[in-house]
Amino acid sequence: MDRNTPDFMAFFDAAMRPGSDARGFYHRNVRVTVGPDSFMVRVPMEESEVMDLSIWAEHDILSVLHPHLTHAPRLLHVHHDPYFQVQEFIEGERVEDLHPYGASIPARIIDDIVVLFSELLSFPESRIPALPADWPADGDSEGFGAVLLRLGRSLREDHGKEAPRLFETLGIPEDPFLPLEDGLKDLTSRPFRLLHGDIHRGNLIRGAQETFFLDWQLALWGDPVYDLADHVHKMGYTPDSEQRCIRGWLSVAPGECRRRWSEDLKFYLAYERVKSSVVDTVRWARRIAQAPTGSPARHTAVQELTAKINRARPYWSQGDSGVLAADRVASAVTEFHQA
């Protein structure tokens, strides 16, 4: 098939047929095969709740990645009315299917992630798309952290309007990010770099020999230590795998990016944990309600939400070492859905 003249609207029509999609959080992702060629069609889901920071259209960042990043999908077509993208299809299996959350990650995959970090850290600033007019200046880590906290607070406000009693019962304060405010001024100024912003098992495809990295819609230009923290938070590493990843990042990060990295990693991890407790309280409450009473799926979802909140509680509980019990979480969710 001649890739220069495919009927991309036919791809879109195929992607929109009922039952054809594999849903991500922000997109329908549909494999379309024509003869020997396969393509990935990505169509935004209008009903998606925005829970993450995004400064670029995904097609804008994908269009500049190559040749600087070697294992990202290539953008083949963008259609604006209706909006959809066509990307090359990456053959392989998702890492989350091969190695579920919490399971050990093979060293070869971690090494590929370190290669990605190396390429992100060396990505030329001249190639990035235009930044928002109010974006923090290069090296303004405090300003970058402030942008994150503003997003977190807006999410808490929005979710609190939907489920005020649920948040109250679970002990999540109106401003769970307030204890992190003092940490902003302590963030070290370091040069901004390209960040993927969403490196987790669901966005990793393991091919025959290499790992590929999908979903670039949350890419940012900012403090590179944040990308490491976001990755460590979302990846669910075992302790040994986490340390291998961090050592790998340190081995490829320039000296100016490593300054006080450990202290700032703690700040960004705190942010990610608090943010997760906010955005996942309502999301997981929905999952719990949809699972049959007494089912393993319901039990697992309750345990997961309990863990998310307990990881965040130390940051706002002023030294209270107590933990939230799973039965309290289950009861609060039941009350929320019966209200």
Strand segment tally: 10
Per CATH, the architecture of the largest domain is: Alpha-Beta Complex
Question: Structural class given helices, strands, pairing?
Answer: alpha+beta
Number of H/I helices: 13
> Which strand order does the major sheet show?
1-2-3-5-4
Average residue-wise pLDDT: 92
Portion in helices: 40-55%
CATH fold-level topology of the largest domain: Aminoglycoside 3'-phosphotransferase, Chain: A, domain 2
Give me the CATH superfamily of the largest domain. Answer: Aminoglycoside phosphotransferase (APH), C-terminal lobe
Number of domains: 2
Features:
13 helices, 2 domains, globular, alpha+beta, 5-stranded antiparallel beta sheet, Phosphorylase Kinase, domain 1, Aminoglycoside 3'-phosphotransferase, Chain: A, domain 2, 3-stranded antiparallel beta sheet, 339 residues
How would you characterize this protein structure?
By secondary structure, the chain is α+β, with helices and mostly antiparallel strands. It folds into 2 domains: 8-89, Phosphorylase Kinase, domain 1 (2-Layer Sandwich), CATH 3.30.200; 95-159 and 174-279, Alpha-Beta Complex (Aminoglycoside 3'-phosphotransferase, Chain: A, domain 2), CATH 3.90.1200. 47% of the residues lie in helices and 13% in strands. It has 13 helices and 10 strands. The strands form 3 sheets. The protein has a 5-stranded antiparallel beta sheet, with helices on both faces. The radius of gyration is 21 Å and the shape is globular. The termini are far apart. The mean pLDDT is 92.
